[in-house]
Structure formats: C-alpha cells, structure tokens
C-alpha cells in the first residue's frame, strides 16, 4: 500500500506540512516502509547514513555515547518526527545511535529521494 494512504496523518507532519498536497503524497509514496516488531538499532553513532527516517508509528530512542563512555539519552522521537536527515544531506557520520522501539514503523527516504525532492521544491 502507498505510504500516503497507509499513513494519511503524516501528510500533516512538520516535515511536509508546507508543501503542496500532490508533492507530499509523492514523497510518502516513494519511501520504503520498515516495520520493527522488536527494539532494533536503526543508526549507530559514527556510521554513515544512507537517508532519513520519518516515524509513522511508535518511537525511537536517540542516544549519544561520549568519549569517556557516558551514555546519554538525548531524545525520544515520536510519530511525525524525523532523524538522520542532517547526516544524510551533509554526507556525514551519524552523531547518535537511534533505536526503534518494539512495534515501530518507519518510512525511509534515501538521500537520493531527499535531493530530488529538494530540486522539485526549489
């Protein structure tokens, strides 16, 4: 099923809310839906990022491990929030570890889709 039909509430997410309706649907329909039944590491600190994620259902814990080994939970991202976009667009290593909670569904946007989308909007 297309992302725009499966997750219509995301059409109003902060990421997409100011874009034309047809374009929002195009973006959601061209992502990859990834569902996780168990807690799963999506991005690891210092790894390369291949795209951005939008949370469709569930939550993602974002944590940072300092050089001295101290672990800090810096955010619990919820439905409609994104992660990985800065690193994907800047072609930089991930600054934090992102773990999807059990029963979480994410929409994955590869960097190429993000860059194409920016070209359409610009």
Commentary on this structure:
The structure is a single chain. Strands 1-8-3-6 form a 4-stranded antiparallel sheet. It has a 4-stranded antiparallel sheet with strand order 2-7-4-5, with no helix packed on it. The two termini are 29 Å apart. The chain contains 4 helices and 8 strands; from the N terminus they run ααββββββαββα. The chain has 122 residues and is α+β, with helices and mostly antiparallel strands. The mean pLDDT is 88. It has one domain (3-121): Jelly Rolls (Sandwich). The radius of gyration is 14 Å and the shape is globular. The protein has helices spanning 3-6, 21-29, 85-90, 111-121; strands at residues 32-36, 40-43, 51-57, 60-65, 71-77, 82-83, 97-100, 104-110.
Which features does this protein show?
four-stranded antiparallel β-sheet, single chain, Jelly Rolls, 8 strands
Q: Helical stretch count?
A: 4
Structural class: alpha+beta
Radius of gyration: 14 Å
Percentage of residues in helical conformation: 10-25%
CATH A-level architecture: Sandwich
Number of separate structural domains: 1
What's the short version?
The chain is globular and about 50 Å long. The mean pLDDT is 88. The chain has one domain: Jelly Rolls (Sandwich), CATH 2.60.120.10.
Would you spell out the secondary-structure blueprint of this structure?
Layout: H1 3-6, H2 21-29, E1 32-36, E2 40-43, E3 51-57, E4 60-65, E5 71-77, E6 82-83, H3 85-90, E7 97-100, E8 104-110, H4 111-121
Antiparallel strand pairs: 1-8, 2-7, 3-6, 3-8, 4-5, 4-7
């Amino acid at each position: 099923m297309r992302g725009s039909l499966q997750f219509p509430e995301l059409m109003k997410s902060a990421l997409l809310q100011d874009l034309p309706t047809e374009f929002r649907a195009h973006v959601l329909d061209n992502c990859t839906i990834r569902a996780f039944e168990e807690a799963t590491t999506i991005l690891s600190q210092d790894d390369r990022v291949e795209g951005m994620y939008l949370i469709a259902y569930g939550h993602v814990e974002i944590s940072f491990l300092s050089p001295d080994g101290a672990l800090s939970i810096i955010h619990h991202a919820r439905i409609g929030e994104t992660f990985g976009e800065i690193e994907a667009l800047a072609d930089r290593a991930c600054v934090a570890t992102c773990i999807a909670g059990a029963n979480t569904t994410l929409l994955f946007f590869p960097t190429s889709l993000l860059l194409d989308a920016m070209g359409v909007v610009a």
